[in-house]
Structure formats: C-alpha cells, structure tokens
C-alpha cells in the first residue's frame, strides 16, 4: 500500500509501505480521510519523544471496514467508521473505566504504532465507531479533534464563567465549539493570525485579541471586568501563553493546559498559591467523550465548514510545511489517500 511516512525531522515521504497484518480482534480499515493534528506537526518538527521515524503518522481518521478478524464482531466489511486511536492495555483501572488515554501502558495509532496517513490501517475492532452514510468521511475524521475540545470543556465540570481561549488553531477552535454548545458565557479568544481570529468570531467568540498589540492585556481585562476570567483553555502552550493565562485568570480560577508549544515554562508559583489558581493538564479524551463527539457530528452540531480543507495524502510534505508557517491561511487539513 501507499503511506505517508515520517522518515526524519521535517520530512514526510509518500512511499510504498508493508500492508498491515491483522491479528485476532483486529479490523482492516480502508482510510478515506485522515486529518492533520497539531501534535503531528509537533512530531514532524522533531519535538515529540513518542514519534520515532520511520513512522506512519495520523490519529484522526475515518474510512470503511474491509475485513474483521472475529466471528462475532458487531461491525463487518462495508461499515463506515471513525477510529478511537488510543490503545490501552485493556486491564488496568483506567482502561476498565473507559479512560484508556490515561493508561500507563497505552499506545496511540500514529505515535507508537502505524497511524492513518495510509491507504489501510489495522485497528482493534473495539476502537471502531460506526458513522451513518449521511456523514462524509472528512467530517467524521474531525471527531478526534472535537473530542479534544469536549475533553477540555469537560475538565471544567459544572462551573460556568467567563472563558479565555489562547490560540485559535484546531484545538482552540474545537474548544470554542464545545464551549459554545455547553453554554460558557463571555468567551474571548487570543490569537496572532488574523485569519484564525476571523474564524473564531464567526464561531461565536465575543472578543478576539491579538496579543502582539500593545494594549492586548488591558483589552482582555476590560472585557472580563469585575467578574474576571474564570477559565482559560491554553490551546497554544508557549511560555507567553502560559504566563498570560496566569496573569489573566481570576482568584480561584482554572487554567487548562493543552497546547504543546513548549516543553518547559517558568511560572510564578507564589502567585498560583496566593490566588489559589488551579492548573490542569488536558490530554486526549475518554471513549465516552469520543463517542459524544461522533454524536455531535452526526447531529450536525459542529459548524466547521470554512476552516477545514482537503488535500491529497501524497501532498503531505507540502501541507505540513504550509501548516507550520505562522501566517498560514489553512487551519485544519484533511488528507485524502
Ligand atoms: Zn489529534
Ligand atoms: Zn490500561
């Protein structure tokens, strides 16, 4: 089969690759759509410890089942699916409660094992989420990314208060979609790229601010007013955004760290203590959140149209080069094998 293989930092090659070999309980999926994630870009730049070349990247995919290795599987050839890409050990307390993403022995498709940037993918039958015929594969492939947004919003629990989203890439925009549907009031989005800010406004952001502008912090403080900013989703993950989050959040507020921009950041811990700021990491999503994302997509609750674009899988290298540019006008790209 053909696959888009990560062969060295900043290098993807579209080449022949061995066909997957199925074992008991596996399915073979013919991939029709595989979206590029910010974490794929992070890996491609050579910053991911988990992604070791040569590797087929991609963990946001949808396609059609062509074969299953099980006598009593609920899905069979011809079933249209999207894929929960996390492979837990299946035995620990996390896996038993549907939280495979926290399993200490987890593997992720496109990270430790071959992913979806290929014609075919091997995946455990239990990781297949069927989708109806009216949902196209490109849209179905967005379930993973939406699940990340739902997970960030889910970590807030029942609390509702003014929200700031730092970064309007796919993660920030999916966080915005989730926040909007889950009734977060007063949402401000902080983003450098004007094209992305415009999309955030279209998706319902009440304010967008360019942090490069001199009065950005005052503008945000004016927007949040006396009430202050209760929750922050850091969907960028750079020292500047993490430090901005700390300055912006109100006493007792919650900062959710999800962006992977930089590994380490110096933070004023005395400030965190004195104002009882809560910091939480957000990684991936549970099986339940993933299914919820699929349901939202099937129900048409996602207003994604104009920030998703498609490209042939064979053009992967060019697309990755384009996506890492700070002024890129593409936001989310779905590769088509
Ligand atoms: Zn992803
Ligand atoms: Zn486990």
Describe this structure in words.
- This protein has helices at about 40-45, 95, 135-140, 145-155, 170-180, 195-200, 215-225, 240-250, 270-275, 285-300, 315-325, and strands spanning about 1-10, 10-15, 25-35, 55, 60-70, 80-85, 85, 105-110, 120-125, 130, 165, 185-190, 205-210, 230-235, 250-255, 280, 310, 330-335.
- The protein is an alpha/beta fold.
- The protein folds into 2 domains: about 1-140 and about 305-335, Medium-chain alcohol dehydrogenases, catalytic domain (Quinone Oxidoreductase, Chain A, domain 1), CATH 3.90.180; about 145-280, NAD(P)-binding Rossmann-like Domain (Rossmann fold, 3-Layer(aba) Sandwich).
- Strand 15 (about 250-255), helix 9 (about 270-275) and strand 16 form a beta-alpha-beta unit.
- Helix 4 (about 145-155) crosses helix 5 and helix 4 packs across helix 10 (about 285-300).
- It is globular, with a radius of gyration of 20 Å.
- The termini are close together.
- The mean pLDDT is about 95.
Radius of gyration: 20 Å
Main sheet attributes: strand count, strand direction, barrel closure: 7 strands, mixed
Oligomer: single chain
β-sheet strand percentage: 25-35%
CATH class (first level) name of the largest domain: Alpha Beta
The name CATH uses for the topology of the largest domain is: Quinone Oxidoreductase, Chain A, domain 1
Mean pLDDT: 96
């Amino acid at each position: 089969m053909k696959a888009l293989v990560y062969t060295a930092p900043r290098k993807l090659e579209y080449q022949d690759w061995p066909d997957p070999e199925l074992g008991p309980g596996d399915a073979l999926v013919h991939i029709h759509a595989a979206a590029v994630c910010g974490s794929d870009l992070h890996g491609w730049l050579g910053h991911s410890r988990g992604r070791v070349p040569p590797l087929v990247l991609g963990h946001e995919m949808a396609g059609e089942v062509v074969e299953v290795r099980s006598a009593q599987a609920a899905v069979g050839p011809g079933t249209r699916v999207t894929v929960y890409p996390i492979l837990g050990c299946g035995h620990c307390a996390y896996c038993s409660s549907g939280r495979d993403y926290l399993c200490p022995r987890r593997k992720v498709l496109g990270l430790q094992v071959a992913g979806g940037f290929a014609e075919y993918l091997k995946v455990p039958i239990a990781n297949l989420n069927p989708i109806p015929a009216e949902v196209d594969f490109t849209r179905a492939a967005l379930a993973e990314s939406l699940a990340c947004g739902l997970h960030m919003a889910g970590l807030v629990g029942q609390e509702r208060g003014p929200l700031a989203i730092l970064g309007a890439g796919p993660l920030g925009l999916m966080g915005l979609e989730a926040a909007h549907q889950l009734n977060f009031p007063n949402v401000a989005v902080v983003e450098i790229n004007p094209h992305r800010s415009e999309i955030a406004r279209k998706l319902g952001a009440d304010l967008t601010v360019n942090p490069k502008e001199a009065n950005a912090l005052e503008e945000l403080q004016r927007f949040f007013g006396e009430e202050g900013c209760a929750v922050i989703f850091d969907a960028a993950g750079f020292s500047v955004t993490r430090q901005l989050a700390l300055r912006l959040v109100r006493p007792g507020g919650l900062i959710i760290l999800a962006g992977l921009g930089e590994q380490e950041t110096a933070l004023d811990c005395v400030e965190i203590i004195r104002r009882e700021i809560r910091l939480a990491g957000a990684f991936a999503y549970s099986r339940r959140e993933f299914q919820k994302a699929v349901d939202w997509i099937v129900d048409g609750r996602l207003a994604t149209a104009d920030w998703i674009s498609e490209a042939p899988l064979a053009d992967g290298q060019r697309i990755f080069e384009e996506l890492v540019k700070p002024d890129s006008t593409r936001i989310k790209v779905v590769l088509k094998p």
